[in-house]
Amino acid sequence: IYRYIQKLNNESNDGLKISFSTINSFLYKDYNTNLYISEAIWPKKITIKDTIEQFDWTIFKENKSILGFKVYKAFLNYHDFYITAWYAPEINIPCGPNEYGGLPGLILFLETKYSKNEEVQIYEAIEIKNLNEDFKLSEPEILEKTMTQEEFQNFFDDFVEKENEIYKSGVDKD
Length: 174
Known about the structure:
Blueprint: E1 17-18, E2 26-30, E3 35-40, E4 46-51, E5 58-66, E6 69-78, E7 81-88, E8 106-114, E9 120-124, E10 128-129, E11 146-147, H1 149-169
Parallel strand pairs: 4-11
Antiparallel strand pairs: 1-10, 2-3, 3-4, 5-6, 6-7, 7-8, 8-9
Protein backbone atom coordinates (compact mmCIF):
# COMPACT_ATOMS: atom_id res chain seq x y z
CA ILE A 1 0.00 0.00 0.00
CA TYR A 2 1.29 3.45 -0.87
CA ARG A 3 0.18 6.56 1.02
CA TYR A 4 1.31 10.17 1.11
CA ILE A 5 3.79 10.35 3.98
CA GLN A 6 4.26 13.66 5.77
CA LYS A 7 6.93 12.36 8.14
CA LEU A 8 8.66 9.00 8.33
CA ASN A 9 8.87 7.15 11.63
CA ASN A 10 12.37 5.79 12.26
CA GLU A 11 11.37 3.15 14.82
CA SER A 12 12.95 -0.26 14.26
CA ASN A 13 10.62 -3.30 13.88
CA ASP A 14 10.73 -6.83 12.46
CA GLY A 15 9.48 -7.68 8.92
CA LEU A 16 9.62 -5.62 5.71
CA LYS A 17 7.97 -2.29 4.88
CA ILE A 18 8.55 -0.12 1.84
CA SER A 19 7.25 3.46 1.86
CA PHE A 20 6.91 5.67 -1.20
CA SER A 21 5.64 9.24 -1.15
CA THR A 22 2.75 9.87 -3.53
CA ILE A 23 -0.04 12.39 -4.03
CA ASN A 24 -2.75 9.69 -4.10
CA SER A 25 -4.89 9.47 -1.01
CA PHE A 26 -4.09 5.76 -1.04
CA LEU A 27 -3.14 2.91 -3.33
CA TYR A 28 -3.83 -0.74 -2.52
CA LYS A 29 -2.69 -3.73 -4.58
CA ASP A 30 -3.45 -7.37 -3.79
CA TYR A 31 -1.42 -9.62 -6.10
CA ASN A 32 -3.16 -12.76 -4.82
CA THR A 33 -6.56 -11.55 -6.10
CA ASN A 34 -5.23 -9.20 -8.85
CA LEU A 35 -7.11 -6.30 -7.17
CA TYR A 36 -6.11 -2.63 -7.56
CA ILE A 37 -7.85 0.05 -5.47
CA SER A 38 -6.91 3.73 -5.48
CA GLU A 39 -8.57 6.92 -4.39
CA ALA A 40 -8.33 9.93 -6.67
CA ILE A 41 -8.52 13.20 -4.78
CA TRP A 42 -8.71 15.52 -7.80
CA PRO A 43 -10.88 16.70 -9.49
CA LYS A 44 -13.11 15.04 -6.87
CA LYS A 45 -12.81 12.16 -4.43
CA ILE A 46 -13.47 8.89 -6.31
CA THR A 47 -12.50 5.29 -5.62
CA ILE A 48 -10.87 3.50 -8.55
CA LYS A 49 -11.29 -0.27 -8.37
CA ASP A 50 -9.87 -2.46 -11.13
CA THR A 51 -7.57 -5.36 -11.87
CA ILE A 52 -3.81 -4.89 -11.69
CA GLU A 53 -2.58 -3.95 -15.13
CA GLN A 54 0.15 -6.01 -16.80
CA PHE A 55 2.91 -3.99 -18.47
CA ASP A 56 5.29 -4.93 -21.28
CA TRP A 57 8.58 -3.72 -19.78
CA THR A 58 11.90 -3.79 -21.64
CA ILE A 59 14.54 -4.97 -19.16
CA PHE A 60 18.20 -3.95 -19.42
CA LYS A 61 21.39 -5.39 -17.91
CA GLU A 62 22.36 -1.91 -16.66
CA ASN A 63 22.46 -1.84 -12.86
CA LYS A 64 23.34 0.33 -9.89
CA SER A 65 22.72 0.42 -6.14
CA ILE A 66 19.77 2.04 -4.33
CA LEU A 67 19.52 1.77 -0.53
CA GLY A 68 22.12 -1.00 -0.63
CA PHE A 69 20.15 -3.12 -3.11
CA LYS A 70 21.40 -3.99 -6.58
CA VAL A 71 18.77 -2.63 -8.98
CA TYR A 72 18.25 -3.10 -12.71
CA LYS A 73 16.87 -0.71 -15.29
CA ALA A 74 13.56 -1.26 -17.11
CA PHE A 75 11.74 0.93 -19.64
CA LEU A 76 8.11 1.24 -20.70
CA ASN A 77 6.35 3.41 -23.30
CA TYR A 78 2.78 3.70 -22.00
CA HIS A 79 -0.03 6.10 -23.06
CA ASP A 80 2.30 8.95 -24.11
CA PHE A 81 4.53 8.41 -21.06
CA TYR A 82 8.13 7.23 -21.08
CA ILE A 83 8.70 5.32 -17.85
CA THR A 84 12.09 4.32 -16.49
CA ALA A 85 12.14 2.03 -13.46
CA TRP A 86 14.94 0.64 -11.31
CA TYR A 87 13.85 -2.57 -9.58
CA ALA A 88 15.47 -4.85 -6.96
CA PRO A 89 15.18 -8.59 -7.75
CA GLU A 90 16.43 -9.26 -4.20
CA ILE A 91 13.04 -7.97 -2.97
CA ASN A 92 10.81 -10.41 -4.84
CA ILE A 93 7.66 -8.24 -4.89
CA PRO A 94 6.36 -7.21 -8.37
CA CYS A 95 5.15 -3.83 -7.10
CA GLY A 96 5.91 -0.13 -7.51
CA PRO A 97 4.42 3.33 -7.10
CA ASN A 98 1.04 4.19 -8.60
CA GLU A 99 -0.21 1.58 -11.05
CA TYR A 100 3.29 0.51 -12.10
CA GLY A 101 4.66 -2.93 -11.30
CA GLY A 102 5.01 -6.34 -12.84
CA LEU A 103 8.80 -6.44 -12.79
CA PRO A 104 10.74 -9.32 -11.18
CA GLY A 105 11.42 -7.23 -8.07
CA LEU A 106 10.26 -4.17 -6.17
CA ILE A 107 10.60 -0.81 -7.97
CA LEU A 108 12.80 1.45 -5.83
CA PHE A 109 13.01 4.33 -8.34
CA LEU A 110 10.56 5.35 -11.04
CA GLU A 111 10.61 8.29 -13.45
CA THR A 112 7.68 9.13 -15.72
CA LYS A 113 8.06 11.65 -18.53
CA TYR A 114 5.01 12.87 -20.44
CA SER A 115 5.91 12.98 -24.14
CA LYS A 116 3.64 15.93 -24.99
CA ASN A 117 5.05 18.49 -22.55
CA GLU A 118 8.05 16.69 -21.02
CA GLU A 119 6.58 16.93 -17.50
CA VAL A 120 8.56 14.61 -15.23
CA GLN A 121 7.49 12.84 -12.05
CA ILE A 122 9.98 10.95 -9.90
CA TYR A 123 9.27 8.39 -7.18
CA GLU A 124 12.16 7.17 -5.07
CA ALA A 125 12.28 4.76 -2.15
CA ILE A 126 13.88 6.62 0.72
CA GLU A 127 13.78 3.90 3.33
CA ILE A 128 13.11 0.20 3.73
CA LYS A 129 11.92 -0.82 7.19
CA ASN A 130 11.29 -4.09 8.94
CA LEU A 131 7.79 -4.68 10.32
CA ASN A 132 6.38 -7.12 12.78
CA GLU A 133 5.39 -10.44 11.13
CA ASP A 134 1.85 -9.97 12.46
CA PHE A 135 1.37 -6.84 10.31
CA LYS A 136 -1.53 -7.38 7.90
CA LEU A 137 -2.88 -5.02 5.27
CA SER A 138 -6.62 -5.01 4.84
CA GLU A 139 -8.66 -3.87 1.87
CA PRO A 140 -9.46 -0.16 2.30
CA GLU A 141 -12.95 1.29 2.64
CA ILE A 142 -14.47 2.08 -0.71
CA LEU A 143 -16.47 5.22 -1.44
CA GLU A 144 -19.98 4.95 -2.81
CA LYS A 145 -18.79 6.31 -6.20
CA THR A 146 -16.44 3.72 -7.78
CA MET A 147 -14.93 3.64 -11.29
CA THR A 148 -12.50 1.47 -13.20
CA GLN A 149 -9.17 3.07 -14.16
CA GLU A 150 -10.41 3.51 -17.76
CA GLU A 151 -13.67 5.16 -16.62
CA PHE A 152 -11.73 7.49 -14.35
CA GLN A 153 -9.29 8.38 -17.13
CA ASN A 154 -12.21 9.29 -19.44
CA PHE A 155 -13.82 11.33 -16.64
CA PHE A 156 -10.52 13.09 -15.93
CA ASP A 157 -9.82 13.80 -19.63
CA ASP A 158 -13.33 15.30 -20.06
CA PHE A 159 -12.82 17.44 -16.95
CA VAL A 160 -9.47 18.77 -18.21
CA GLU A 161 -10.91 19.44 -21.69
CA LYS A 162 -13.83 21.44 -20.24
CA GLU A 163 -11.45 23.32 -17.93
CA ASN A 164 -9.19 24.21 -20.88
CA GLU A 165 -12.21 25.45 -22.90
CA ILE A 166 -13.18 27.74 -20.02
CA TYR A 167 -9.64 29.17 -19.78
CA LYS A 168 -9.41 29.67 -23.56
CA SER A 169 -12.75 31.48 -23.79
CA GLY A 170 -11.52 34.30 -21.56
CA VAL A 171 -13.64 36.90 -19.77
CA ASP A 172 -15.76 39.64 -21.33
CA LYS A 173 -14.52 43.20 -20.67
CA ASP A 174 -17.91 44.78 -19.85
